Amino acid sequence: SLTVLQALEDGLKRADADPSVKAVTICGENGKFSAGADIRGFSSPKRQGIALGPIISLIERSEKPVVAAIEGIALGGGLEVALGCHYRIAHVKAQMGLPEVTIGLLPGAEGTQRLPRLIGVPAALDIITTGRHIPATEALKLGLVDEIVEENTVEAAIRLANKV
């Protein structure tokens, strides 16, 4: 939603400007990282101002480490947000993917560029073209996430952020 995008942008800009902030952790709510965009919004008139791609670029350009704490699902734009982060920690039961291709849409926030850079072209092509959801254990083997945990993902992400 526009509210979430604006809050993410505002929070990142505040964190970058605050010298007391040493790292940032991005997490979802209610056990889910993010399911991405609501496709019903695609039929509404073009929105002014805020878009996901520039916010992900803002995450990527941050001089402070940004860690994604992935719980539940990171799908579509949610996975693209995680791809923009410098580190990714996932709960062992998390699932990730770019399912928008199953309804004829391409990932629109540069996930098709970031994913191959991170995990290589063959694995990325599989995920991008099939829209399948991959479990955290496979994501770890592919290099999509840096660590999987069975405990509180946000706490583990904060520990990693403090370490780096």
Question: What features would you describe in this structure?
Answer:
This protein has 164 residues and is an alpha/beta fold. The chain has a single domain (2-162), classed as Alpha-Beta Complex (2-enoyl-CoA Hydratase, Chain A, domain 1). The chain is 43% helix and 15% strand. It has helices spanning 2-17, 52-61, 77-84, 111-119, 121-130, 136-142, 153-163; strands at 24-27, 66-70, 73-75, 87-91, 95-97, 134-135, 147-149. The strands form two sheets. It has a four-stranded parallel β-sheet with strand order 1-2-4-7, sandwiched between helices. Strands 3-5-6 form a three-stranded mixed β-sheet. Strand 1 (24-27), helix 2 and strand 2 (66-70) form a beta-alpha-beta unit. The termini are far apart. The model has no long low-confidence stretch (mean pLDDT 91).
Task: Set out the fold topology.
Blueprint (H helix, E strand, L loop, with lengths): L1 H16 L6 E4 L24 H10 L4 E5 L2 E3 L1 H8 L2 E5 L3 E3 L13 H9 L1 H10 L3 E2 H7 L4 E3 L3 H11 L1
Parallel strand pairs: 1-2, 2-4, 3-5, 4-7
Antiparallel strand pairs: 5-6
Helix pairs in contact: 1-2, 2-3, 3-4, 4-5
Q: What's the gist of this structure?
A:
43% of the residues lie in helices and 15% in strands. One of its GO terms (biological process) is fatty acid beta-oxidation.
Q: What is the end-to-end distance?
A: 31 Å
The CATH architecture can be given as Alpha-Beta Complex
Number of domains: 1
The number of helical runs is 7
CATH H-level superfamily = 2-enoyl-CoA Hydratase, Chain A, domain 1
Give me the count of strands: 7
CATH fold node name: 2-enoyl-CoA Hydratase, Chain A, domain 1
Low-confidence residue ranges: none
Helix content: 40-55%
Give the percentage of residues in beta strands.
15-25%
Largest sheet entry: 4 strands, parallel
Strand order of the largest sheet: 1-2-4-7
Mean pLDDT: 91
Shape: globular
| Cα Rg | 15 Å
Q: Could you give the order of the helices and strands?
A: HEHEEHEEHHEHEH
Judged by helices, strands and strand pairing, the structural class is alpha/beta
The CATH C-level class name: Alpha Beta
